[in-house]
Amino acid sequence: MKKTFLQTVKDQLNPIAKVRRESFRSITNSVSEAPEVFEKKNVDWVFYGKENLYPSQLFDLKYGSAIHNSILKTKGKMMAGDGLLLNGLKTKEESDSFYKTLQGTQKAELDYLLKNKRGGTNLETLQDYLAQDYQDYGAYAYKLIFNNDFTKLSGIKYYKAENIRSGKEVNGKVENYYYAKDWSKSTGFGFKPEKIAAYYEGNKNASEQMVYRKIGNADYYGIVNYSGCLNWIHTDLQMSIFHRANIENGMNPGLHFKFYKVPASTLDEDIIISNLIKQWQGAAKTNKMVATFSESKELGMDISPVETSNLDKQLLLLAELCDKKILTGHQLTSPLLAGVSVSGQLGGNTELETGWQIFDGLSMAADRKVLRNDIEFWFEFNKIGIDVNINKFKPFETIAVKNPQFTISSNG
What we know:
two-stranded antiparallel sheet; 14 strands; six-stranded mixed beta sheet
């Protein structure tokens, strides 16, 4: 729908609202810790959030809060690990050596699954995608592609969890899932969601079946592990918007233009405001302004700013609280593990390695087990005859540098 002139002017007079819309789509209020999940008549899928866009809000929070983003990336790496370990071996080197000894049908079957050409991405990359979605959205999704007689997996296709909605339960079981690239347009012409049969043991009604693996036991959808600090993540996002708007406004609160004569019509009023925007705000349109029209000076409206005492100190305190609450919500006691520097948290390598092991054992091991169980199922279903495990991501291992390609010289 084309904007009216007045709406365009309002948008230009409110740069903070403009920043929110362009950078963070639909986020205007806090994201709830537990999403509203409900069914609607005449709609096949279950709504995920008030407008069915809860995962999109989580996506916006990730890229609106630097500390939250950094932690999620670290957790995704820890869950995905560093490749696979075959046949119960403990190191990547041992596993690679074992792989080289494989021959014949067994090697061909293993290569077919590892390359996963029918699924569109190799197995190691698929691990990364699924693990990151599990941390970001509290769930991951993939489609199993079976051969004609359902005796082998032909491929495993990744689907972004943000784009999946659950069908309604029938006799206590979800029979279908729905995929849409953009759920905000799902009711528009040409954007009808794709229905995909749900996987369950013994289902031979469809050769392609969706697995939706979620955190927790809530109905239909997963609950993110960081749900307890969602309000603090949102606060961190809003603070970044506030500071950005301040910079774009030239670090001033704006100006109030008082006119002591009411224009003859609304159109004349719009023209006056438009001229102010062109001549005062300039091309960047960064300065905020307020215009009022009154019959006389005596009848004019007074606008007085509400002064906040010690605003700079309050903002610093709020920023520190945000960092602490977000770290607590993620159960991360050593911020440097996620590349986050926090005052008073600097420690030596030994302390960091201990913190890493504690965090991995308390939080990440359980998540990694979920992914490992699915990978084990793929190997077992295709009867490859090889045990498989996820190789832990180990950032503290010393890596020897062989044949360096640089020299250091002195001009002194």
